[in-house]
């Protein structure tokens, strides 16, 4: 779908979608030869997640950090968002009841205690928001770093050498196509290494990690040290790999 079609479908402005693209929150999967942004089904699914979190009061930068976290899981996020929205609905129902009772109190129909006048107001941090930040925020990065610190010096050196070897192999392929057989065989090595040594990465999490390689300057700088443009190449190759694997799993 083109950007205007997405804007009309969702009910948001084209300018908003441009802004999401500019900050790396929602980057369309394709851009046509004439410069039109083309949004895929995956883009629309991601936009739904973004808007749910936005409706729940999350800042855009926090949403970006969470949805591109390697550990992000869409179904898990929907489950949590449902809990948060139910809690919000309960709170709104309480506030509506407070308003109605206050109106009756003003007309002299009922009496209200001071406590009743403020029923439904909530100023404490949402527990589900804390949970979301814990699952997909900085805590996940800290956990990964903690796992690495548990390795011996020899194990860390061996892992670093194995990682560097894959980076170098991919750097030699970066002038080609990310979807090529050679690139996909090598990017699978990266997927397997991460799952064996770092943590559990779903296909969506692997794709999200690839997006971080181009969204986060620290990742880009470190990866591009092996060859300019490698971060972008890896990000695209990881997206292709993840989508193909999900398609094959669905076909089975």
TrEMBL record:
Keywords: Activator, DNA-binding, Transcription, Transcription regulation. The keyword S-adenosyl-L-methionine does not apply. One of its GO terms (molecular function) is DNA-binding transcription factor activity. Residues 1-69 form the HTH merR-type domain. InterPro entries: DNA-bd_dom_put_sf, MerR-type_HTH_dom, MerR_fam, TipA-like_antibiotic-bd, TipAS_dom. This is MerR family transcriptional regulator. It comes from Heyndrickxia ginsengihumi.
